[in-house]
Amino acid sequence: MAADVRVFADAEELGEALASEILERYERSTDAFLLGCPGGRSLRSTYRALARRGAELERLVVVMMDEYVPVPPVDAHHSCRGFALRELAAPLGIPEGRVWLPDPDDPAAYDERIRAAGGIDLFLLASGASDGHVAFLPPGSAPDEGTRVVELAESTRRDNLATFPDFASLEDVPHRGVSVGLGTIRGARAVRLVLHGADKRAAAARLLELGRFDPEWPASVVYACDDGAILLDEAARP
Q: What is 4-233's CATH number?
């Protein structure tokens, strides 16, 4: 399935455009609006652009993609919950109760919770620079799997050194995480995959060259979605 490819001057322009799309979709909705969100660097310009709009988002639910296992304290530098509270909940005025994360003790309950709330309206994705991982899903992930506890690939753990620079070394990066599955992502009404910066150029080239879903490059799940788009800035454009 083809995916729309959109190119922007830089990460800030990309973030502004994606924030506008989020708000447009939110305004067209009438019930709870579930926004699938990654942690890390790639969506920060979008989150900050969204916060600058100052919109009332009383129906917005933040559905985070993953969390490390064992679950770190919320004030740990690599806590996905901590990231969500700092970068999304506080700036957008969203109470903690509308920030969801998967539970490693009952991963399947996350997919059921999403279904019961009407499904994810828009899933935002980022791609690993070296292996195309999304969330914590390693190369070789199946397209229909749901939320589960996974072993992080060494390539993903190396990417996490850049995502969370307070890790002193690879040995400090956890080996396991609880993560939505590619099936969870594919169930969203729309999916937007974001890559910006020169460090993502090789990943973008691999993704665009594929032009289809390949389980060895999980970010290519965007091609298996009914409404998928790839958003790049000029620095990441191959």
A: 3.40.50.1360
